[in-house]
Amino acid sequence: MKTISIQEAMKKGKGEVSIHGWVYRERGSSQLKFIVLRDSTNIIQCVIKKEDVGDKQFGIADKIQVETSMEITGTIKEDKRAPTGYELQVKDFKLIGNSDSFPITKDQSVEFLADNRHLWLRSRKMTSILKIRSTVFGAIDEYFKTNGFYEYHSPSLTATAGEEGSTQFKVNYFGKPMFLTQTWQLYAEAGIFALEKIYTIAPSFRAEKSKTSRHLTEYWHAEMEMAWSKFDDIINHGEALIKFVVDKVLKNNKEDLKIIERDPKKLEPVLKKKFPRMTYDEALEILDKKCKMKVAWGKDLRTIEEDNLSKLYDTPIIVTHYPKKVKAFYMKEDDKNPEVVLGTDFIAPEGYGEIIGGSQREEDPEKLLAMIKEKGEDPSAYGWYLDLRKYGSVPHGGFGFGVERVISWICGLDNIKDAIPFPRTMLRTTP
Hints:
alpha+beta, CATH 2.40.50.140, BirA Bifunctional Protein, domain 2, 2 domains, 32% helix
């Protein structure tokens, strides 16, 4: 008999089926053995009776432990008492891979689960998070492709900084210093003169000495860049992308949200409302009046300010026109006020921090050169980048979308480490 998934078997609802998977739970007596089998689609209770399989087979069944892999054939029927509403009366089974004393049991510490991450991925919680993660990646790809963007890739090893030089990971590259990329952006700006509208989904690296629940040293970055754009174009794409991603998860991952105990009603306002937009100056006024927080003009918004702002809204908020001195060298000055730039941060609700950072890019080669020097970077390393402004430059801009930050918020996770299969942080390098 052809093997089908547990979900397919439950959809069939009755009759004989053959499934395979891993033992999620097991208990029994001298005459009866209950196996809860799991695969990537669901779990199902399987009942092995000695009278149905014989003494020899039942003796084998009686020694089965958690995470043993099995093939099972039997008759499926609806049973409201079973964990997922269906039960399989086993006619025959075959052990595929033994398991002895699986180390993960109930009530393990966070550190223990991190040390055994390679095994903890099998948990129902992590499986559901990984399914949602897959939906998020697929939605990003679909959004950009349906909006006329080409997928484009840039180097993971670079000779220059895309953000602050202090957060670069240095690599010995055949005796020469190179760096793990912080962003695709500088190389993306070269690509728009060929393809005009481009995107990528790729790892980025930040050597931030941070131990917070929202930082990773290696994370996945969805980035876009487009020629002939205005600042509002960048903002509008950011808002539309977030709405598109959340909509896909709410439609495709209802059961996974249940398993991780995430209330979908907390995400529904994202689809129903326009995101509030405010300038940096307006954000400072709101913090002063509503949160009793006075922030000196010219300081970047820290985690505490972002969190307090986010508590006032049930959707992401869009903050624009930050002081030039706290933003990257490539951001375009506002024509009306050269002290601020056409840069934006999207701040997620519920204290999940910045999930999108973007800007209109500076087109003027003289202003760009001056900003490179002001930020303490070596202009000679950016010769090729400055060339982009010399040969037919056009208005352009883009943003970076922190995929794990978005997954953390969508899933309501306590820590960003659970948004990625194998997190890399200051203190976590294995498994």
